[in-house]
């Protein structure tokens, strides 16, 4: 069965088929969906319903808001399958709403809070600037880069890193299921955030050790997580900038997970060249854990994420030809043929 298109996803919960113009207007007013989902996630309404359906007044008391206004949001959310009104003014979770439960390990609440934040919403008013100039709309709207903004705002940094850790939880399982990482001895996770994925690799390979490399403000948050995962004694935590600081050497496996899509080609080439220098003649592998954009009209979520990369960070999702060109320019080659249209592993060798 093929994946539904975005327009098909907008079919109301009652199955009534909308006219083409109605679907177009729904798509054009997508900010409504963003605002409602973000607000319900921020209030943690899903957390109020884990034990079963509750009245809107009980939910409102639990989250600290007006029952009448909350009912209006929930009534809207029902239209898109997010929550269900089981009887008048009584609501329950749906499969979609389960993704907002903070007690579930595969929840996406932090990512929803990031994507629906005022910073992201304002940045998308600069989409036209990005298309015309090739530069991030975020910089144009906010007067600084996304990364500079994170360094200036501790709350924004926490939201971003929490979202990235959540993504690591979900993607980590996918990568470990789909790819044979061989028998690594020492793994360098470059731009590895708080170390969630590196910890998962070391749990799978108990004889291996690792190096976690990311911005000092990020890896400062890693120690607690690594202790909790019982791998802190096997990981060297290094704070630095992968554009300017020396990268770890002496590793047989280098990992770049959802890093290069944050950057335009010139910056991505700089990162890869520095890793190539760290690899030297050791024969170490580079594993790039990202997406390879599917060709032509094929459904591919990467084509959605690519717009975020353009506007927020100035990066991009890449198709196979673009990956091959980027790797060849930096002294790497693909060791096999990666899958397209999904999160995949590009296994690279020097030369």
From TrEMBL:
O-methyltransferase dimerisation domain mapped to chain residues: 26-98
Catalytic residue positions: 261 (proton acceptor)
Molecular function (Gene Ontology), one example: O-methyltransferase activity
Residues annotated as transmembrane: none
Gene3D superfamilies documented for this protein: 1.10.287.1350, Vaccinia Virus protein VP39, Winged helix-like DNA-binding domain superfamily/Winged helix DNA-binding domain
Record-annotated O-methyltransferase C-terminal domain positions: 125-333
Domain of life: Bacteria
InterPro entries: COMT-like, COMT_C, COMT_dimerisation, SAM-dependent_MTases_sf, WH-like_DNA-bd_sf, WH_DNA-bd_sf
Name this protein carries in UniProt: Methyltransferase
Organism: Streptomyces albiflavescens
């Amino acid at each position: 069965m093929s994946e539904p298109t975005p327009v098909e996803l907008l079919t109301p919960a009652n199955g009534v088929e909308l006219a083409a113009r109605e679907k177009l207007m729904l798509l054009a007013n997508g900010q409504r969906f963003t605002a409602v989902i973000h607000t319900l996630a921020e209030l943690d309404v899903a957390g109020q319903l884990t034990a079963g359906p509750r009245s809107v007044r009980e939910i409102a008391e639990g989250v600290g808001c007006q029952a009448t206004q909350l009912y209006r949001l929930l009534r809207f959310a029902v239209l898109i399958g997010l929550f269900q009104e089981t009887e008048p003014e009584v609501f329950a979770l749906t499969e979609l709403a389960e993704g907002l439960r903070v007690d579930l390990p595969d929840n996406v609440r932090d990512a929803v809070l990031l994507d629906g934040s005022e910073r992201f919403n304002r940045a998308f008013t600069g989409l036209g600037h990005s298309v015309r100039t090739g530069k991030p709309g975020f910089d144009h709207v906010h007067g600084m880069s996304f990364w500079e903004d994170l360094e200036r705002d501790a709350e924004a940094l926490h939201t971003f890193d929490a979202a990235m850790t959540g993504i690591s939880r979900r993607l980590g399982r996918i990568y470990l299921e789909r790819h044979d990482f061989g028998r690594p001895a020492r793994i360098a996770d470059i731009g590895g955030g708080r170390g969630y994925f590196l910890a998962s690799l070391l749990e799978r390979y108990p004889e291996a050790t690792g190096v976690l490399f990311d911005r000092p403000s990020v890896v400062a948050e890693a120690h607690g997580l690594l202790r909790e995962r019982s791998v802190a004694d096997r990981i060297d935590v290094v704070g630095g900038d992968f554009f300017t600081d020396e990268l770890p050497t002496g590793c047989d496996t280098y990992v770049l997970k959802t890093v290069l899509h944050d950057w335009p080609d010139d910056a991505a080439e700089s990162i890869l060249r520095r890793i190539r220098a760290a690899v030297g003649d050791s024969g170490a592998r580079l594993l790039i854990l990202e997406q390879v954009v599917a060709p032509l009209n094929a459904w591919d979520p990467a084509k959605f994420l690519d717009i975020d990369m353009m506007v927020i960070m100035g990066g991009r999702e890449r198709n196979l030809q673009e990956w091959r060109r980027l790797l060849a320019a930096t002294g790497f080659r693909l060791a096999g043929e990666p899958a397209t249209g999904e999160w995949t592993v590009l296994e690279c060798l020097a030369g």
